């Protein structure tokens, strides 16, 4: 509760001191802007705003506390350009690269005034300037439309690779067309919030997906055994399930094999889990191939998973690899990605009601950018990527896929990190539960769970994702206890199911009302698994690979030991093929 009091304090600060202080600076600008006869100042705003996208925030200064940014607003009366300001709440700073407020420690670019600017192609013109099928580079050169955003500069000024976002790629996926996009293979809706099959919300099961990221081994299997103890059952009588996005290094394949035997879903979190976020954002097709398809080869072999059930991918650090990642996935028969985050709100700033807007008008503010859309914070359902994604790509280092891909996106709705929803303020959402850094006690965690459950349950019942690193849940005994308490409380209802990602897709492909869900066949597989693991004494293979010089790593498996520790160039561990 102490945190609340702190937040109340910053609220006051923001509203009384903060905004009025910043308004002084902006009022100055605004007056200059309108200053009679003083054309110079006008010019400087025009200059400042020349060629600047209207939705891009930038800093006027790098001194100060990194909370204030402005953007160029051309809308006003007589289409004069003005600066519209935004200030992040206390404790947060504005990240220029990602264009959002975030905790101060996460923001590394306070010394930069603006996003680095690149030469842009000339895509929007009243009259086409190139022959049909071609588009104009920044320098007026015309090249084939297909050459834009293919990861290879084709324009002399290289501008063809500089406008490739979900909104700007000339070869981007089209907007959702519900007449073309039909289940079971395609699902989309304009704002992402529509329920599949148009089922009434009160007939939709509230699905909850518990997922874990990282290696599976002796450090965490006790936790998994406690949560998924075989006694806890969904309303259809089948055991509750989780999804494990696993990385290879240090994983124990006997444990992986047993989780799979018990009906949990194994999915890929990569082979190396290299701790260089840029490697993932900038990874080539072959990098993604080696990491995800190569990683899957290792898991299938050493956990003896032969049923083709490893179909999901989550990018390390949630650093999505753009179109290349998704092209690789389609080629390799992956079915879904679970790394794209949907923001809670656009710019996470508290809206102060009428008082704020009265003040803004008094102080010559032009524009407020803090009302979050969608206003009710309705969560988003998973969607397929045949059509354009229905929300902004604001996390994920902005590298969401712009093209059409036959892949499901099991979107991660950010959690509302407030542990008390009656306290009306906006903080940035968090995608992994452990990134909700304000959650310090079991009580706070318990309230966070219930508040976010209600947010989903009382709106469109989009699946609620609870994404963990095992180490966080184990860091305090009360976290684990509260999670188990929450699960049992939910299972006492008859409308909540703890399911895997694949089970969510199965339901969406065949939307079934709660009243007939007990007989939903797709959810009956491995319904109530009993019995013992395949092997009680796995081979503890001590292995090396010339790819990791000086390291000996134990690979536990019920299968035979390979010759080498499987790694990126040698995923079977058989040795390097002569090349
Ligand atoms: C591996 O799986 C196959 C097919 O499920 C099974 O026949 C075989 O006995 C398993 N091998 C081991 C060593 O577990």
TrEMBL record:
Keyword Kinase carried by entry: no
Occurrences of domain Chitin-binding type-2 (ranges): 46-112
Residue pairs linked by disulfide bridges in the UniProt entry: 130-142, 137-155, 149-164
SUPFAM superfamilies: Glycoside hydrolase/deacetylase, Invertebrate chitin-binding proteins, LDL receptor-like module
Molecular function (Gene Ontology), one example: hydrolase activity
Record SMART domains: ChtBD2, LDLa
InterPro entries: CE4, Chitin-bd_dom, Chitin-bd_dom_sf, Glyco_hydro/deAcase_b/a-brl, LDL_receptor-like_sf, LDLR_class-A_CS, LDrepeatLR_classA_rpt
Disordered: annotated segments: 28-48
A Pfam family assignment: CBM_14
Signal peptide region: 1-25
Listed Acidic residues bias regions: 33-45
Biological processes per GO annotation: carbohydrate metabolic process
UniProt keyword Flavoprotein present: no
UniProt KW keywords: Disulfide bond, Signal
Gene3D superfamilies: Chitin binding domain, Glycoside hydrolase/deacetylase, Low-density Lipoprotein Receptor
GO cellular component: extracellular region
Name of the protein in question: Chitin-binding type-2 domain-containing protein
Lineage: Eukaryota, Metazoa, Ecdysozoa, Arthropoda, Hexapoda
């Amino acid at each position: 509760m102490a945190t609340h009091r702190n937040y109340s304090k910053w609220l006051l600060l923001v509203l009384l001191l903060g905004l009025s202080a910043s308004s002084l600076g902006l009022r100055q600008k605004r007056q200059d802007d309108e200053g009679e006869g003083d054309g110079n100042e006008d010019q400087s705003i025009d200059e400042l705003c020349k060629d600047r996208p209207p939705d891009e925030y930038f800093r006027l200064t790098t001194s100060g506390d990194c909370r204030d940014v402005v953007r160029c607003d051309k809308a006003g009366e007589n289409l004069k350009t003005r600066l519209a300001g935004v200030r992040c709440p206390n404790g947060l700073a504005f990240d220029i690269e990602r264009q959002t407020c975030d905790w101060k420690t996460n923001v590394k670019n306070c010394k930069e005034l603006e996003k680095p600017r690149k030469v842009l192609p000339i895509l929007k013109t009243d009259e086409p300037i190139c022959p049909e099928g071609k588009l104009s580079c920044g320098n007026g050169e015309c090249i084939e439309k297909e050459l834009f955003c293919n990861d290879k500069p084709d324009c002399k000024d290289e501008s063809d690779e500089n406008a490739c976002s979900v909104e700007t790629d000339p070869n981007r996926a089209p907007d959702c067309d519900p007449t073309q996009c039909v289940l079971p293979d395609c699902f989309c809706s304009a704002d992402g919030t529509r329920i599949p099959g148009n089922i009434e919300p009160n007939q939709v099961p509230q699905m909850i997906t518990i997922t874990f990221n990282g290696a599976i081994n002796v450090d965490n299997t006790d936790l998994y055994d406690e949560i998924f103890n075989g006694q806890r059952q969904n309303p259809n009588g089948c055991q509750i399930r989780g999804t494990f996005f696993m990385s290879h290094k240090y994983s124990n394949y006997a444990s992986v094999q047993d989780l799979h035997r018990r009906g949990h879903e194994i999915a890929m979190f990569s082979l190396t889990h290299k701790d260089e976020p840029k490697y993932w954002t900038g990874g080539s097709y072959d990098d993604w191939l080696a990491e995800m398809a190569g990683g899957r080869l290792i898991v299938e072999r050493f956990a003896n998973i032969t049923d083709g059930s490893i179909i999901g991918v989550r990018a390390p650090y949630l650093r999505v690899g753009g179109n290349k990642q998704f092209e690789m996935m389609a080629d390799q028969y992956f079915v879904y990605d679970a790394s794209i985050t949907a923001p809670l709100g656009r710019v996470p700033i508290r809206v102060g009601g009428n008082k704020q807007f009265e003040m803004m008008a008094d102080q010559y503010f032009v524009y407020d950018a803090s009302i979050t859309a969608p206003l009710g914070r309705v969560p988003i359902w998973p969607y397929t990527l045949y059509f354009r994604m229905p929300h902004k790509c604001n996390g994920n280092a902005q590298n969401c896929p712009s093209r059409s891909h036959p892949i499901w996106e099991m979107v991660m709705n950010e959690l509302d990190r407030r542990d008390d929803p009656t306290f009306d303020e906006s903080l940035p959402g968090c995608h992994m539960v452990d990134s909700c850094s304000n959650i310090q006690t079991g009580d706070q965690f318990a309230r966070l769970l219930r508040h976010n459950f209600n947010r989903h349950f009382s709106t469109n019942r989009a699946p609620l994702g609870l994404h963990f690193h095992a180490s966080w849940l184990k860091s305090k005994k009360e976290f684990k206890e509260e999670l188990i308490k929450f699960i049992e409380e939910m299972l006492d209802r008859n409308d909540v199911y703890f399911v895997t990602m694949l089970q969510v897709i199965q339901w969406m492909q065949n939307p079934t009302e709660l009243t007939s869900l007990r007989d939903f066949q797709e959810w009956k597989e491995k319904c109530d698994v009993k019995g013992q693991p395949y092997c009680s004494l796995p081979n503890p293979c001590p292995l090396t690979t010339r790819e990791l010089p000086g390291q000996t790593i134990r690979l536990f498996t019920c299968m035979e030991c390979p010759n080498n520790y499987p790694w990126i160039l040698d995923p079977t561990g058989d040795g390097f093929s002569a090349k």
